[in-house]
Write a structure and sequence with these properties.
The chain is mostly helical. It has one domain. The chain contains 15 helices and no strands.
Length: 356
């Protein structure tokens, strides 16, 4: 929508003019201008994302209450909207307890590093036309690489607590990664084959005429299932199954450290949902008829939130499988199916590309 694009452009020009004025007054070297502009974009996106993240956490709790037919958060603020802020304050003021035989260096390092690596992929996510902090040619590989580092940090976190439940949860996370990573990557490669690009912006713009879910329905389903595994959300939450291993690899973390882990998990959710939207659901493009009615970034967020509602639905509907069943799902069903889908996409490539 032209008015929305004009508003974004004028707002950014105003911010740039302020930065240029500051550079001129303080006589700051010009070579610092580009890094400062990129950092400013990142800060703005993170602030806007933080507001959306609070909303995601809030309505997940409301949806769980509806599914369970019980009252959810209602008392703190109107409709319980301030409950997340209250929880954050509570975690901030709680005492940080470190077990006597824990690895204190890793115990302090892993939570902050976990949150940092969770937020890095947001830099290359295109939320709309020209709405990204950085546009690199291999942005898809960059996002997948950042997500792949998560199980390694979980192993460090489980080791740092010096607790058998933490260690079991950490090793479960590593095994779970073996189950989902290859099918997930192969499903994404089917989209790369259609667009001949690893750039998320290029993949989004290629879906202006037709969303890739229409050309890759099997790839979409595989990516959706493996994304739930990657996020370790129910029913694939074996690394932190509270009925079996207390809180899994997070057992010995409390206070702000626990809050960082929980916040990073929701950041991971947003990143993976955004990646699913970009790869299969048209990115920032709306449906053909009603697309022009809303700004592109609104369509992008609507798709992300609808996918999140589906995640909550799955979380509350299916029981947790055993670890051997999870590995069987990944290697006996998802991996061969993803490979077959990639081969069929390669064989039908000229006909599929003609539809784009």
């Amino acid at each position: 929508m032209s008015w929305f694009d004009d508003m974004i452009s004028s707002s950014w020009e105003f911010i740039v003019s302020i930065i240029l004025t500051v550079f001129h007054v303080l006589n700051i070297p010009d070579w610092l201008l580009d890094p400062v502009l990129i950092l400013t974009k990142v800060i703005i996106l993170l602030l806007l994302f933080s507001l959306d993240l609070l909303m995601i956490v809030w309505y997940e709790r409301k949806l769980i209450g509806r599914f369970h037919n019980r009252r959810s958060v209602t008392e703190t603020g109107k409709f319980g909207l301030l409950q997340n802020i209250a929880d954050f304050v509570k975690l901030m003021i709680k005492e940080d307890i470190i077990p006597k035989k824990a690895d204190k260096f890793l115990h302090n390092l892993v939570p902050a590093l976990f949150m940092f690596l969770a937020m890095v992929p947001l830099v290359v996510i295109p939320f709309g036309p020209n709405l990204w902090a950085a546009n690199i040619e291999t942005s898809l590989i960059f996002v997948v690489a950042m997500l792949s580092m998560t199980p390694g940090l979980i192993l460090l976190g489980g080791w740092a607590g010096n607790n058998k439940f933490s260690a079991i949860g950490a090793f479960r996370s590593g095994l779970q990664m073996v189950a989902y990573e290859l099918p997930m990557a192969i499903a994404a490669m089917s989209v790369v084959l259609l667009t001949n690009s690893l750039n998320l912006v290029t993949i989004s713009t290629a879906q202006q005429r037709i969303w890739f879910i229409a050309l890759q329905p099997i790839g979409f389903l595989i990516f959706l299932v493996t994304s739930v595994m990657a996020l370790e959300r129910m029913p694939f939450d074996l690394p932190e199954a509270e009925a079996e291993i207390v809180a899994g690899w997070k057992t010995e973390f409390g206070s702000l450290k626990f809050g960082l882990f929980m916040g990073a998990e929701y950041v991971h959710v947003f990143v993976v949902l955004s990646l699913t939207t970009i790869l299969f659901l048209g990115g920032w493009y709306g449906p053909p008829v009603i697309g022009p009615l809303l700004p592109p970034v609104v369509w992008f967020l609507i798709k992300v939130h609808l996918l999140f509602i589906f995640y909550v639905w799955v979380r509350l509907s299916y029981p947790r499988p055993r670890l051997d069943q999870l590995l069987r799902i990944g290697w006996r069903w998802l991996f061969p199916l993803a490979l077959l889908n990639l081969i069929v996409t390669a064989l039908l490539h000229p006909y599929l590309v003609a539809l784009i």
